[in-house]
Amino acid sequence: MTKPTLLTMSRLLMKRLLPAFVLAVGLLVAGQPAARAEGEGQLMASGANVRDQASLQRGARLFFNYCVGCHSLKYMRYSRIADDLGLTEQQVMQDLNFTGAKFQEPVISHMPPEDATKWFGKAPPDLSLEVSAKGADWVYTYLNTFYLDPKSPIGWNNTTLPNAAMPFPLWELQGEQVAVTKPGSDAVEKLDLAHPGKLTPAQYQQATRDLVNFLTYVSEPAAMQRHRYGVWVLLFLALFTMLAYLLKKEYWKDVH
Amino acid sequence: MANVFARIGDWVNERTPGLAPMYRKHMTEYYAPKNFNLWYYFGSLAMLVLVNQIVTGIFLTMNYDPSASGAFDSVQYIMRDVEWGWLIRYMHTTGASLFFVVVFLHMFRGIMYGSFKKPRELVWLLGMLIFLALMAEAFMGYVLPWGNMSFWGAKVIVSLFGTIPKIGPALQEWIMGDFLPADATLNRFFALHVIALPIVLLLLVVLHLAALHEVGSNNPDGVEIKKGPKGNRWDALKPADGIPFHPYYTVKDLVGVGFFLLIAAFIIFFAPTFGGWFLEHDNSIAANNLVTPAQIKPVWYFTAFYAIVRMVPSAFGTAVWGVLGMFGSIALLFALPWIDVGPVKSIRYRGTGYKVALTIFVIAFFCLMALGMDLTDEYFPRIFGAGIDITLWDNVFGRIMTVAYFGFFVFLWLYTHLGWEKTKPVPDRVTTHD
Fold this sequence. Notes:
- The structure holds 2 protein chains of 2 kinds.
- By secondary structure, chain A is mostly helical.
- Chain A has a single domain, classed as Cytochrome c-like domain (Cytochrome Bc1 Complex, Chain D, domain 2), CATH 1.10.760.10.
- Chain A contains 10 helices and 6 strands, in the order H-H-E-H-H-E-H-H-H-E-E-H-E-E-H-H.
- In chain A, helix 2 (53-67) packs across helix 9 and helix 3 (78-85) crosses helix 4.
- The longest helix of chain B has 33 residues, at 183-215.
- Chain B is an all-alpha fold.
- The chains are: A mainly alpha, B mainly alpha.
C-alpha cells in the first residue's frame, strides 16, 4: 500500500490526466482551421488583441468614420464603448457618434435597409457579431483583399469573399489593388497595389488590425471582464485545491 | 450557541426520526471501498455540474426570451446588459460540454471495472437512462439560443425521426409543431429543457444513487468488499476494506472538485468558445431558414453517434437504418450487463482479448467522433494527398470504425458466453489505495 505522496500524485497526473489534456488541446488546435475556413485560400493573421486599448480606440474611430454609414452594431451601446475603451461621454458623443443617437443607445446606422437592398442587392449586415461568426483573421483578410474588378457591378471584388456586394470604403487609405490572374484562367494569383492610397501598406495593415480589434471587442465586450477576473479566479481555485488536498491528506492519514 | 444547535437538532429529530438514520446510511455509514482511484471522481463531478446547470439555468431563464423573434437577441442581452450575465451563460455552456466529458469518463470507468455487472445491473440501467435524458436535455438546450447552427441542427436531428417508414413525416411535424423548427418548436423545447427533463434527470440521479447505496460501490479491483472480511474501525459488522463515505470521500472529492473547477474556470475565463467546439461560430448568426451553414454538424458530444447515422447506408428504399444504427449503438450499452457476462469485473484481472477489444472500442469511438466533426475531411487530404476521393475515404474509414464499435459488443458476447476468456486470479481483498 503506497502512501499519498506528491510523487504518486504527479505520476497519476502524468499517466491519466495529461493524455486527456493533450488530446483536448490537440482537438482545439486542430479544430480551429476547420471551424473558420470559409474564405478562399489562406487567411492572414489579424493579431487582434482586445487588451490593446490604444488600438481599440483607433479601431473605433475608423469604424465610425468609414463603416457606420452602412453597418450597425445593434447590440453595442455608445455608453458601453466609452466605459470599456477608457473614453469620456463627451469624447464618444463628439468624435464617434455621428448619428445623433443618445449616449445610452445602441449603434444603429442611418441607412434604411430597404434602400440599401435596392442599392447593393443586399442590406449591409449588422457587424455586432461578425468576428464571432467568421473569426478575426477572416475579417482582417477580407479587408485586405479588395481589388478593382471592371466586371463587377460595383467595380470592386474580393478574393476572400468572391462577388461580395460591398464596395470598398477604405480605398482612399489602402489605394487600389488589381488582380494578377494566372495565364489563361480567371483565378486570382495575387493582388498588386496599382495606386497607393494615403497610407503605406504597413500603415494600412495596422489600421485594419485596429479595426478588426475593435470589432473583436464588439463581438464580445465581456472579454474585457473575463481577462480581468480570470487570473484571480484561477489563483483562488489553486489555493482552494491545495488546501483541499492538505485536508484530504490529513483525513486519510489513518487509512491503511 | 452549540446548545441552540443541539436543541434545534433534537427538535427536528423528534419530528422526523427517519432523517438522521438516512443521513448516516448515505454518508457517515456508507462504507465505500478504500481503493478508489482517479476514475472515481467523475460521478461526484457529474453531480456538481448538474447543480451548476440548474443554478445557472435558473438565472438564464430570468432573462431569456423563448420566442423565435426574441431568443437570439435575448442571449446577446444576457451577454452584454445583464450584470454578470456573460459569466452565468459561459458557466452554463461550458458546463454542458464538461457534463458530457465527465459522464463519458464515468461510463468508461463503469465499463472498464465491470461496475455494470451483477449485482449492479440496475445502477447501470438507471445511469444509462440518465445518459439518454441528458442527451435530450442537451439537444433541446442547444436549440434555445436560436443561432443558425441551432436551427439547422434541430432540423437535421428532428428529421432523423422523419426516416421512420409511414409515420415519419407526420411524427416530424408533430415534434416541431410546424413544418420547420419555428416558434412552436422553441417554446416546447424551452418547456422540456427547463422543467420536464431536469425533473426527470434529478429523479433518475436519486434512483441511481439509491440503487448504488443498496448494493455498494464497485472498485478498481472489482472485489466485492461486502463478501470480504468484516470489521473496520467504525463498525465490527461492516466490510474491512470499506471506509465511511463522509468524511473520507467527501474530502477526497473536494480535491477533485478543485482540479475540475480549475480546468472549468480556465475555459470559462480564457477560452469560452473552446476554439468553436463548445460555442460554434455559426451560432453567432441568428437562425435563418434561407441560409444553410457551410457544414451542418452536431455539437461535439453527439458527433460519434451522428457519424454512425451517416455511415450506415440506405437500403430497401429507406434511410431508417442509420437512425436504427445510432439508437442501436446506445441500446447495446443498455444491454451490456447481459452481453458481457464474464465473471471477472475489473480490467486488471481480465483476459488479453478484453483489453485489446476495449482499446479498439475507445479508438473507434474517437475516430467516429473525429468523422462526425468533419476533421477527417480536413486531415485525410493533408495526410494522404489532395487528390484522394474524400467521400470514399470517409465512408471506408467510417464504416470500419462503425463495425469496430458494434464489433466490441459482438466480441464480448462470444468471448464471455462461450468461455473464451482466460482471466487472472482475482485477489480476496482490495490491493491498493492512495
